[in-house]
């Protein structure tokens, strides 16, 4: 039995396509295609009818999947029983997360997890850059944005809105932009380049080059400067939600918001995942962005 190939088969059926299955599993499209081809050779059966646009499961595929799905669930349950599920989790877990998001969202949940599992230790590594999980011994990472193809496993847990904002006083003095192109008339907070950079919006807004007199490599510093009236900022809404609630800043160009940023949990593929890490993944998956439609905040 090749458990990996069976998981790929079920992911394709659940997600509707090879591409979506690869994204869900944190694998490359090529590796997913190879797994299905190998499974078809082993079973001497055609599992999918392939066209240039989609794959359609055969009747034999659907029947086979219906039989193996509960079997795989039972295997997982049996494995957990074998290691005695009642035994307390033990050991260390290293988590990586973006600085602001990790402090605001991940850290409180880690504290809650530790209160439940008294023999677990957690190190939370906060960094803006994506750390190599294998080279840094990171067990689990929280990542914002689209994921490139890799051997990492991934679970999307929600999305984050991105907003453009400034103080009411700034807009009273300089005017409210009605279209992203009008940002050229304003000072914008810069992150990437000392003189100007490009902000992207939805299809109605396009890609707009903005400029400004304040620049910082820190998103929090840019937000603080915008909140002090230095100009217009752009950020995931969670970074400025308290300022919005207090009325210190207001959003503009809401109808031009870009697609929300996906939030994923990622961990290394190709190796067994300790039960303490699997438990934390399940814990964070349902709590990281709770109570929001499709995890949007």
By secondary-structure content and strand pairing, the structural class works out as alpha+beta
CATH superfamily of the largest domain: Periplasmic binding protein-like II
The spatial strand order of the largest sheet comes to: 4-3-5-12-6
For this structure, the quaternary state is: single chain
The CATH topology assignment of the largest domain is D-Maltodextrin-Binding Protein, domain 2
- Which percent band covers the strand fraction? 15-25%
The CATH first-level class of the largest domain comes to Alpha Beta
Total strand segments = 12
CATH architectural designation of the largest domain: 3-Layer(aba) Sandwich
User: From N to C, what is the helix and strand string?
Assistant: HHHEEHEHEHEEEHEEHEHEEH
Using only C-alpha atoms, the radius of gyration works out to 23 Å
* Overall residue-averaged pLDDT value: 88
Could you tell me how far the N terminus lies from the C terminus, measured between alpha carbons in angstroms? 42 Å
Helix content: 40-55%
Total domain count: 3
Low-confidence stretches: 291-297
The helix count comes to 10
What is the makeup of the main sheet?
Answer: 5 strands, mixed
Strand and helix map with partners:
Blueprint lengths: L2 H13 L2 H8 L3 H15 L4 E3 L4 E3 L1 H24 L8 E7 L1 H18 L3 E7 L6 H4 L3 E5 L8 E8 L1 E5 L1 H7 L21 E5 L6 E5 L7 H9 L5 E4 H9 L4 E3 L8 E7 L7 H13 L10
Parallel strand pairs: 3-4, 3-5
Antiparallel strand pairs: 1-2, 5-12, 6-12, 7-10, 7-11, 8-9
Helix pairs in contact: 1-2, 1-3, 1-4, 2-3
